[in-house]
Write a structure and sequence with these properties.
Helix content: 40-55%
Shape: globular
Largest sheet: 5 strands, parallel
Bound molecules: iron/sulfur cluster
Strand order of the largest sheet: 6-5-7-9-8
Strand content: 5-15%
Oligomer: single chain
Structural class: alpha/beta
Number of helices: 19
Length: 434
């Protein structure tokens, strides 16, 4: 099977030859270009944006990090040349560097990874390599931050392209969450009830900045992943009357609904509106206050796609990620983290047809890994995670060759004060039991 990138190149070339537009086949013809082409156009226009891909329509904060210029030689190099240079740099570095690749990363980069996994698995994988001076994280910014928090202080965590953020993580910034918290404290007060439960606890999804993990750590709160969100919510309900859940409304809603929390007790907090767009009574009656955030990749899945898959492939197993909207999770056969999806496919003993609701690079890789099954993405339009896509092999070759030359570029460093509180919230998550 050809990689997502190869497919995009082919589609774009065919469209150019036929004078057609990209409609219905890829989400943006700009995907076929190098990220630097987009960086330049974007910088000239002065518009912060995520670049081509699933979140290209999302508003990026003004402070969204920019990569700056990549030396020309890396932009001009062919894929084969970049491959040779990456392998040579890897060989020269040996155990001094470890390369981590997220499930949603493109194949052109994943082929050089020492570990492939979800964000938390990768941060833990880095712990198995205390000898490595550099951890090259081919994922997005919040993942590199988590790796920096969990790794030894002398280890440098490197994000090959600084513009690889996460649009969902950016939807909850520390100032807006602090403002929300102040308003909630005014309504709820801070006194525990007769059972010792505080009025509200903050819970942040792993896909958030280190500053928000620290915000939770400092206030008795906790971090969750898509694998343990249920356990974490149960933990929080033992200690609090309600939860403020950010940034992903869908993971929060899907998880709380599965625990039996009625939808009317899950008001949404829109940070641009007074009291998040709610009246005080709705907040007082709430069990989970959901932040107005979402993943642009998983938001693309809809019930119509599931209905079509069931019609076209009777008996199909539909598995979706819990970052998908509630209606999609309800219509699927099962929902779970990337690890859950992988394990569900690995566990199928008979040839099975799977329709998967998660990022296209991961789905295509699963299809190649399990040829005995028919595995396809519910969304027929090729549209990868915009921000993950910004890690091009050219950036990987650059950061590795700089390391060989004794220079550390693109280091992600979380301030010591933030690290301490963020680590507290992460440790609570590791210790949380159902
Ligand atoms: S897939 Fe969604 S949540 Fe994951 S990094 Fe991309 S935008 Fe963020």
């Amino acid at each position: 099977m050809s990689s997502v990138n190869t497919a995009i190149q082919l589609i774009t070339r065919e469209q150019a030859e036929q004078g057609a537009t990209a409609k219905g086949s890829t989400c943006s013809p700009a995907l076929a270009k190098g990220p630097w082409d987009y960086d330049l156009a974007e910088a000239l226009a002065g518009i912060p944006a995520y670049g081509p891909g699933a979140s290209s329509a999302d508003a990026a904060p003004a402070a969204t990090p920019r990569q700056g210029q990549l030396p020309e030689e890396y932009k001009l190099a062919s894929d084969a040349e970049l491959g040779e240079r990456i392998l040579a740099a890897k060989a020269a570095l040996g155990d001094r560097a470890v390369i981590l690749g997220h499930f949603y990363q493109r194949d052109e980069v994943i082929q050089y990874a020492d570990f492939v996994g979800d964000s938390f698995q990768l941060a833990n994988a880095a712990l198995t390599r205390p000898d490595a001076e550099a951890i090259v994280f081919c994922g997005v910014h919040f993942m590199a931050e988590t790796a920096d928090i969990l790794s030894a202080p002398e280890q440098a965590v490197i994000l090959p392209n600084l513009a690889a953020g996460c649009s969902m993580a950016d939807m909850a910034d520390a100032d807006s969450v602090a403002e929300c918290w102040e308003q909630l404290e005014e309504i709820f007060g801070t006194e525990p009830d007769a059972e010792g439960r505080v009025p509200v606890l903050p819970v942040t999804y792993m896909n958030s900045s280190a500053a928000l993990k620290a915000f939770c750590g400092e206030r008795g709160g906790i971090v969750c992943t898509s694998s343990n969100a249920r356990t974490v919510l149960e933990w929080a309900f033992q200690r609090a009357q309600r939860v403020l859940f950010f940034p992903d409304q869908h993971l929060g809603r899907n998880t709380a609904k599965a625990l039996g929390v009625p939808l009317e007790q899950m008001p949404m907090w829109n940070p641009r509106r007074e009291l998040g767009g709610n009246d005080a009574q709705a907040l007082l009656d709430s069990r989970v206050i959901l932040w107005h955030g979402f993943c642009s990749v998983h938001k693309r899945f809809n019930v119509g796609q599931i209905e079509k898959a069931r019609k076209d492939f009777p008996g199909v197993q539909v598995i979706v990620h819990p970052e998908c909207p509630m209606e999609v999770v309800d219509a699927a056969d099962s929902a779970g983290s990337t690890d859950f999806i992988k394990k569900a496919i690995a566990a199928a003993t008979e040839p099975t047809t799977f329709a998967i609701g998660t990022e296209i690079n991961m789905v295509n890789r699963l299809a190649a890994e399990y040829p005995q099954h028919t595995i396809f993405c519910l969304d027929p339009v090729i549209c990868p995670c915009s921000t993950m896509y910004r890690i091009h092999p050219g950036y990987l070759a650059w950061v590795l060759e700089e390391l060989v030359a004794g220079r550390v570029v693109n280091r992600i460093t979380v301030a010591e004060s933030v690290q301490d509180h963020a680590r507290t919230a992460l440790e609570r998550m590791l210790a949380a039991r159902p």
